[in-house]
Amino acid sequence: MSDHPVVSPDSMPENGEMLHEQLYRYAEDLQLMVARNRELENTYQLLNELVKSSNDMHLVTDKEGVILETNPAAWQIAEQELLERSNLENWVLASHLDQFNALLDYARQDDAPLAAQEGRLLLRRRRDDAPAMLVSAQIVNQHNGTDHLHWILRELTQHNAEYDPTMSATLLLNTVEGVMVTDQNGKILAVNPAFTHITGYSQSEAIGQNPRMLNSGTQDKQFYREFWQSLFEKGNWKGELYNKRKNGEIFLQRLSVSAVRDDEGKTLSYICIFFDQTQAEKKLVHLAHHDVLTGLANRVLLGDRLMQQLSKARRSDGQFTLIFIDLDRFKQINDTLGHAIGDAVLCETAARLIATVRESDTVARLGGDEFIILAGDLAGDEDIRMLCDKTIAALSEPMQFDEHEIHIGSSFGCAEYPRHGDTEALLMLHADQAMYQAKSTGGSTCVIYHADIDLPC
Amino acid sequence: MKKILLVDDHTDIRRLVRITLGSTFEVFEAEDGVKGLRLALEIVPDLIVLDVMMPGALDGLQVLGAIRSAPVLSNTRVIMVTARGQVSDYEDGMLRGADAYFIKPFSPLALVAAIKEHLGL
After folding, report:
1. What is the pLDDT along chain B (121 residues), one digit of tens a residue?
2. Extents of the domains making up chain B
């Protein structure tokens, strides 16, 4: 039993009347909604126009990345018909697929904030000759129940990339040329790592100094007069000069200096780019005198050393020995195990030869599997045999490359100055003959030249 | 989908409200207080739209009282609907025990807005 005043059913409006009144309220609300809908449509049209005329590329995709809608700016990737229904993933270059998937994964989360997530993508374009396009990509999850993702892509290549100062900085960090920037008075403002490598002055030592610190005193006043005249008149100078490193060493520098001027022609700074000619020449000389594979002396350097050794021995009645070495069955290793293993055997042989001879001796490779030791002051059969036996033993130790264990034998032929010859040609010939005899006896042995070798067997 | 229970003896009003809410909510109906309370205890709706004046053993206010004392319905929101000019001071005080109340004829837009607000949508 309810204890509040009971309302008599008589006072209730008739059901029909109540329904009418309620229907009028529905009609009023409908009128309101129609008006609101019109406003929304206008807003939608406006936004649509904005997106259409935007320079940014707008794409709507489903959650898998399949493109559903595009604006005209997006058609620089490909024609609309080609673009729509394709997966955006197909237009992203492999280098940026991880970025793409990260963006997609982020936007797919149900609780991803509405705020745009941003990343960078590199896109290929339909026209094969068109360069790839770097874009900043924003992805907006609309959360409106449609499962659609809204992508906004803005091209970076034409704008930001061109002006990216970190690019030129990276460039300077990695060049072999030394770079130095000075103000209009010659005070050093910046140098790159190659500058430090070439001159020996660290960045902190160089900045604030005058390039005079590199002056070797080699060039005369006339040289510098012409140098400055060219800079003032043409805005640049190119040429070679000798400068001095921090350690006092004088080196040849190929230098190019350019003046940076403002619109009125006033010099703001100088940019100096130089190349270490001395170092480059040293490298060339090294290349010309050494075997590229093993780093040993080559035929040219061996010839020089042999001439030096000859003239020294002639002056002082000295002695020395030339030892020819040939690896036994090397061709077989090359043919059966391949050139990579063959080259490794040659390098290992070179290392073992260097390790057994004295530092003052020269070890050379003449090409193929032929090596030569030029041993100064070595003379007498006993001493020669001792060195050769030691070296043969060192070479006969097994070599391990990957799963291959290689046993290599070697044949040695020796000729001593002046006992077996007093010219370069004779010594070479006799050492070679001795080596062939060692080989013919089955290898892994040493033969010292003796007059009987000349006789036919 | 949130569950909404309509308790009203007017078939046409129930039908109007069902059409209004049907695309957004799962809508249940009862035509008097007793059936309404029984269904409420069974389905535990998130919100009940409850007419005050109904024939039968329980009117809307009694149903409201029962709902408020049923622990199983402690999270259920109640919106009362009553006819214009029919509310006494006493009833007004009782109606305040509901989460909201509407006077018939009510604006369907306002009802939807109130339901969404009370369900935290």
Report:
1. 999 999 999 999 999 999 999 888 999 999 999 999 999 999 999 999 999 888 889 988 899 999 999 999 999 999 999 886 666 766 776 676 789 888 888 999 999 999 999 998 8
2. 10-86+98-118
Q: Does B61 touch chain A (CB under 8 A)?
A: yes
Q: Which of residues 83-112 of B touch A (CB under 8 A)?
A: 83, 86, 88, 90-91, 94, 104-109
The CATH number assigned to the domain with range B10-86+98-118 reads 3.40.50.2300
- What is the SS3 assignment for chain A? CCCCCCCCHHHCCCHHHHHHHHHHHHHHHHHHHHHHHHHHHHHHHHHHHHHHHCCCEEEEECCCCEEEEECHHHHHCCCHHHHCCCEHHHHECHHHHHHHHHHHHHHHCCCCCCCCEEEEEEECCCCCCCCCEEEEEEEEECCCCCCCEEEEEEECHHHHHHHCHHHHHHHHHHCCCEEEEEECCCCEEEECHHHHHHHCCCHHHHCCCCHHHHECCCCCHHHHHHHHHHHHHHCEEEEEEEEECCCCCEEEEEEEEEEEECCCCCEEEEEEEEEEHHHHHHHHHHHHHECCCCCCECHHHHHHHHHHHHHHHHHHCCCEEEEEEEEECHHHHHHHHCHHHHHHHHHHHHHHHHHHCCCCCEEEEEECCEEEEEEECCCCHHHHHHHHHHHHHHHHCCEEECCEEECCEEEEEEEEECCCCCCHHHHHHHHHHHHHHHHHCCCCEEEECCHHHHCCC
Contact B83 A9 (CB under 8 A): no
Which residue in A361, A369, A377, A389 is the catalytic one?
Answer: A369
Residue A4 placed within a domain: no
Instruction: Determine the distance in angstroms separating the CA of A1 from the nearest CA of chain B, rounded to an integer.
Output: 8
Cross-chain Cβ contact B13/A21 below 8 Å: no
Residues of chain A in contact with residue B94, where contact means CB-CB under 8 angstroms, are 4
CB within 8 Å: A18 and B16: no
Of A139, A162, A185, the residue that ends a domain is A162
Q: Distance (Å) from the C-alpha of residue B77 to the closest C-alpha of chain A?
A: 22
Show the domain range for A412: 290-454
